[in-house]
Amino acid sequence: MRTERPHLFVGRAEAPIAFVESVAGGIRLKALDREAVRAGLSVGLTLADARARVPELDVYPHDSHTDHAWLERLADGCQRYTPSVALDPPDGLVLDIAGCVHEFEGERRLAADLEDRLARRGLLVRHAFGDTPDAARALARFAGAPAPDERRAVKRLPVAALGLDDDATTALVRAGLKTVGDVMARPLSGIAARFGAEAATMVRRLSGEVKGPIIPRRTVAKIGVERRFAEPIARTDYALEVIGDLATEAAGTLAERHEGGRRWEARLFRADGLVQSLRVETGTPTRDVPLLMRLFRERIDSLADPLDPGFGYDLVRLDVALAERLDASQLKLEGGEAQKGEVVQLLDQLGTRLGRTRVRRFGSRDSHIPEQAELMLPASDPVPTALWVPPEEGEPPLRPIYLFDPPQPIESMAAEVPDGPPHRFRWRRTVHDVARAEGPERIAGEWWRREDIPTRDYFRVEDRKGRRFWIFRHGLYSERENPRWYLHGLFA
Amino acid sequence: MADSTALLAHLRSLAAPAVPRQADSRPVEAWLGEGLAPAQLHEVFAFEADDGPSGAGFAIACALAADAMPLLWLRTEASERQGGRLHATGLAELGLDASTLLLVLVADEAALLRAAADAARCPGLGTLLIESWGRAPGLDLTATRRLMLAAESSGVTILSLRVAAEPVPSAAATRWRVTAAPSRALEADAPGGPAFQVELLRRRGGHAGLGWCVEWNRDTRTFQDGAFGPAALSGAGLPLAPGGAAADRAPASVRRTG
């Protein structure tokens, strides 16, 4: 499959277009559209040569990230056929359709459906079926002589179809081996010895002896329910109703297994092959459909780009990506702890709208560097077993309530003694006169990680107005000549 | 449709006479001892940014004195940039167990108000602390009125911490101004526990304009008289003259609400 990035082409004149990439020795063509190919250009040509031949050539920088993102979107769309879709960068997809063709009455119909959808987006697709992913990939990417069956078709492919590096391919051709069949006819040990173990492995994969792995982009969900529509549905609220029905169905399955879902994903497949995904997560396993629907609605409201049905959705799928044990007795217990449940619901709702990572609780980490000793965890994660050492009775707080990360530089003025705190310092254009101070509390750098981290001498200081600060000198006077001062936190 | 009915209900509630539903007849001093009146909205102002930590400390202390836990702390990313991250160890040293603290960080003021409205309706919470920096025009009379109503029905005590802000008309039950106060010096002139200069700028249906200097005692979870040290501070219980202008302005706005 060769994608032609239609999103750039919309509304353009029919000028030939090329994508270029800077490589050693100049700028070369990386990808071409049909017009450019017709004009006689080919991939690998330098830009100067191409311009000389086709002056009206439209040139864009090649952007492999955008290409990859586009391929990912296509792969998402292909999940309507099978949950197991793998990327074959830069421009291929591998679909494991074993057991998935019954919806389409045969694989040819499935392929026709796929080509149809992608053609509507202006994509040119080459597909092939194969017993192994490697055979299918080779057949789709390389044209061989026509053959009556898959085995013989693979044998008639050029050696380039083995997917080896350029040197190995050239070496094979030089040795007089033109097609994959030629290579297969030789003893494998000989091939391995002369052209590398890689060549032998590829031959075995293409011949179907060994099955290369296919790494699907997502793991297949535990529970998945879906509904197909003969006529695409164009209204989002109707799609939501469908999600509600599916959620009820999934909740039934979950109830049979004594489980509740923690992570749910609804996917709306558009008729034109794209897919929109809505994910929600709950803090506790649930089978509560109204609650889920509230979260889904919240999710839709918080989308940066609103849901766009386009030509309508023709497939809606709901997956339970993570399920945990939820017994009937547990349900009752939660009723007793009504208050706790309400907070969990609130956190789920806020997490769905704002993003999971913005709803947090505190955890502690084993580090004595203050800014590294604490963790912010999403509140939906299991409750951390934090160890907050209770302070001694009568002690004032020794740590600030607000902490700056990174610490803020301050200008220290008139330090009395080398090891003492400054008499006065300037922070954010305000000068603070130190009235009271305590310190230093010495916190050494993590010398077992890096040796050159200076020691910090911390002071608790209070200015004349009663504002309390936590400041430190970065480095002992013996460690560096003119150590800098920083403000690290603010006390109540 | 749901919005318009909600709006109508809201307008009706605005038109109805604003009788304090839980008129708090306790002497004001008791509020500091036992915590602010529950299920109400209270405002804590730190006029200057440098007094922000004192305002936060006072708000936490009030929540602890009232034992209204768990505490959900709402703040914007701008607050975090300007005022620093919350530090759990330090909060624990004020008496706030960090494992009962939930932090929700939002992108802007609009999201802050929305999250606040949701959290204010959650009866499982003890205290909702809304921290905002600067003018925060969204926290106006309408928004505070809405929060007050939500607090009264859910029982959540809402503390609106306004850092670097001047008071504007609002529906809060009380309004406090907090500034830092010099602490009781420890050995070798070390800074002591948290001390605040607090001033009651406004109180619904009651006298305002009182000021105290208090020290927060973490171990007993109470405020203590904090007037000590050589600095000439107003003594405990003495009405404060400064800040009177703000106090005068505030009750006027209340009358307008009613």
Précis, in short:
The complex is a heterodimer of chains A (492) and B (258). Chain A is α+β, with helices and mostly antiparallel strands.
User: Strand order of the main beta sheet of chain B, please?
Assistant: 4-2-5-6-1-7-8-9-10
Give the helix proportion of chain A (percent range). 25-40%
Find the structural class of chain B using helix and strand composition.
alpha/beta
Proportion of residues in β-strands of chain B: 15-25%
Low-confidence stretches of chain B: 14-24, 229-258
Please name the CATH architecture of the largest domain in chain A. Answer: 2-Layer Sandwich
Count of distinct strands of chain B: 10
Class by alpha and beta content of chain A: alpha+beta
Tell me the number of structural domains of chain A. Answer: 5
- Strands of the largest sheet of chain A, in order across it? 12-13-14-15-16-17
At CATH's second level, what is the architecture of chain B?
A: 3-Layer(aba) Sandwich
- Output the CATH topology of chain B: Rossmann fold
Helix tally of chain A equals 14
Distance between the termini of chain A: 63 Å
Question: Approximately how much beta-strand content do the residues of chain A carry?
Answer: 25-35%
**Oligomer category:** heterodimer
Largest sheet of chain A: 6 strands, antiparallel, barrel
- Shape estimate of chain B: globular
Q: Return the CATH topology of the largest domain in chain A.
A: Dna Ligase, domain 1
Rounded to the nearest angstrom, the distance between the terminal CA atoms of chain B is: 28 Å
The domain count of chain B comes to 1
Biased composition (Low complexity) (chain B): 239-252
Region (Disordered) (chain B): 239-258
Protein name (chain B): Protein ImuA
Domain DNA polymerase Y-family little finger (chain A): 223-322
How is this structure best described in words?
- The complex is a heterodimer of chains A (492) and B (258).
- By secondary structure, chain A is an alpha+beta fold.
- Chain A has five domains: 6-62, MutS, DNA mismatch repair protein, domain I, CATH 3.40.1170.60; 128-207, DNA polymerase, domain 1; 224-328 and 343-351, DNA polymerase, Y-family, little finger domain (Dna Ligase, domain 1, 2-Layer Sandwich), CATH 3.30.1490; 359-389, no CATH class; 402-490, no CATH class.
- Chain A has helices at 34-38, 47-53, 64-78, 107-120, 133-141, 150-155, 166-174, 180-185, 188-195, 197-206, 236-256, 289-301, 328-336, 338-354, and strands at 17-23, 26-32, 58-61, 85-88, 92-95, 223-233, 259-270, 275-286, 313-325, 359-364, 374-378, 402-415, 422-427, 430-443, 456-463, 468-474, 484-490.
- Chain A has a six-stranded antiparallel β-barrel. A four-stranded antiparallel beta sheet of chain A has the order 6-9-7-8, with helices on both faces.
- Chain B has one domain: P-loop containing nucleotide triphosphate hydrolases (Rossmann fold, 3-Layer(aba) Sandwich), CATH 3.40.50.300.
- The chains are: A alpha+beta (492), B alpha/beta (258).
- Chains A and B meet through helix 14, strand 10, strand 12, strand 14 and strand 15 of A and helix 3, strand 3, helix 5, strand 4 and helix 6 of B.
- Strand 10 (359-364) of chain A pairs antiparallel with strand 4 of chain B.
